[in-house]
Design goal:
The protein is of the alpha+beta class. It has one domain: Nuclear Transport Factor 2, Chain: A (Roll), CATH 3.10.450. It is built from 3 helices and 6 strands, in the order ααββαββββ. A 6-stranded mixed β-sheet has the order 2-1-6-5-4-3. α2 crosses α3. The longest helix is centred in the first third of the chain and has 30 residues. The radius of gyration is 16 Å and the shape is globular.
Length: about 140
């Protein structure tokens, strides 16, 4: 039987991880709006990260991930919105599942909003920061 204080500790740990991951998503959105690809990758991804975009080969490592996101910016990516639906954590691993909207193209009638889903697996790094080690997304 799990003690009540142990359950409260688990809940508070999950609450803290959820807060940290949501803050990372908020920073990702700000970095997209600023078109700051270096900050986006540095703030969000671990060195050994894997990016698994829909209809695209896997991208592994920070430099190739930086190049991928730079191509997205060059294609007109100008905004991103994330809605985290679920977070789970165990030890130094955590995951989040959610909905995303990417805004591509000029403001107004010619902009495109791409709606989709994402799954990100985060790992607590040696410095205590949570960074994505696997990120996959697809359109609706």
């Amino acid at each position: 039987m799990v003690r009540k204080d142990a359950m409260q500790s688990i809940d508070s740990t999950l609450d803290e991880v959820t807060r940290v991951l949501r803050a990372a998503d908020d920073q990702f959105e700000r970095d997209v709006r600023a078109k700051n690809v270096r900050a986006l990758v540095e703030n969000f991804f671990a060195e050994e990260a894997h990016l698994l975009p829909q209809d695209h080969p896997a991208v592994s490592g920070k430099l190739p991930i930086t190049e991928y996101w730079q191509r997205m910016f060059d294609s007109g990516l100008r905004n991103a919105f994330f809605e985290t639906m679920q977070v789970g954590a165990s030890g130094d691993l955590a995951y989040e599942v959610g909905k995303a909207t990417l805004v591509i193209g000029p403001v107004g009638a010619h902009e495109t909003q791409a709606h989709g889903r994402y799954l990100v697996v985060h790992k607590r790094q040696s410095d205590g920061q949570w960074r994505a080690i696997v990120c996959m997304f697809s359109s609706n």
